[in-house]
Amino acid sequence: MNKANKEYLYRLLSVPSPSGFESKAQKITREFLRGTCDDISTDINGNLISFKRGSGDLKVMIVGHADEIGFMINYIDESGYIYVKPLGGFDVNLLPGLRLDIHHGDQIVRGVIGKNPPHMTRGDSDSPKLKMEDIWIDIGAKDKKDAEKRVSIGDIITFSSQIEELGDDVLVSKATDNKVGVYIAAAVMKALAKTQIAANYYAVSSVGEETTMKGARTSSYKIEPDIAIAVDVTFTSDVPGADKRKFGDVKLGKGPTLALGAAVHPGLNQMIQDLAKKHKIPLQLEIAPGYTGTDADAIHSQRNGVATAVLSIPNRYMHSPNEFISLTDLDHAVKLLTELIKILNDKTDLSR
């Protein structure tokens, strides 16, 4: 990964963009792509769509979603403790003790997620399965009036998490789900900046995947792509206790994964596998029998149907402040999809 691309990735991961509030992340991608494509536009939902004109009629989009999981302030009690509702899915038992950033206008207010310790609970000593209403955020306020001087109902909240590299390849950060998909779509556009292509290429940074999938649905309706590749993250099974009979065999640093299943296009998948083999790009396989849990679910049946694939980056500890990804996996995904765009043209066979 070159210096400019890594700087873009770090900026993208650092900026807050919980679902429905992605504008700061979109601004960074727009700046990165300026001068590399024929057009960059934003639609009414906040999708960022960059476009490189090809010599033919075939249209292909690569989409990653810019939104990360987060919270919104729902209630402030008389003691100044803050209660929230989630933007996206969480394992609530993971949350106690974590530091959070509350975004109040242009200010960041630091808070810590609290809950009663086991010593203060009655009955069974085992920790119960928590619900969102069992936890609160403590900003050190004296009371409700003091808290309301610093935060408001509806303020958005993200994990307070720094980016680090462990060893030569592993990057640790919040929001790799799915800023890495946005990064890959944009990096492919940049790699093709000086290349003549036949297909019309759209790199889409979509919004709302964690909550509504509105971004993928509306951007694909507008573009009407013949081919779409949703780039997201996927669970790894290279951790203690993971049942590979259930989750398959997916490892960090062994290449991106290609989903096989009912929602994706077998001919497009075969094309991707053949390219990976030709260019000696490592590629792992995973099974998605029905819905994929990605933007592809909103795209593949759009209008008359779209030949869709799902390429994912292995991700340890997903939906946590410390997600692990491999930088090499990112590079391999960019290389594979760049080579794919280069060979697509009006004669590409998408028949079933």
What does this structure look like?
α7 packs across α9. A hairpin with a 3-residue loop joins β10 and β11. The protein starts with a helix and ends in a 9-residue tail after the last helix. It is globular and about 70 Å long. It folds into two domains: 236 residues, Aminopeptidase (3-Layer(aba) Sandwich); 90 residues, Elongation Factor Tu (Ef-tu), domain 3. The longest helix has 17 residues. The strands form three sheets. It has an eight-stranded mixed sheet, with helices on both faces. A six-stranded antiparallel sheet has the order 5-4-9-6-7-8. A three-stranded antiparallel sheet has the order 10-11-17. It contains nine helices and 17 strands. The chain is α+β, with helices and mostly antiparallel strands.
Summarize this structure briefly:
The protein is α+β, with helices and mostly antiparallel strands and 352 residues long. The protein has helices spanning 3-14, 23-33, 144-148, 176-191, 214-223, 244-247, 266-278, 296-299, 327-343; strands at 39-42, 48-52, 59-65, 70-76, 82-87, 99-104, 107-114, 136-138, 156-159, 164-166, 170-173, 200-206, 227-235, 257-260, 284-287, 307-315, 323-326. The strands form three sheets. It has an eight-stranded mixed β-sheet, sandwiched between helices. Strands 5-4-9-6-7-8 form a six-stranded antiparallel β-sheet.
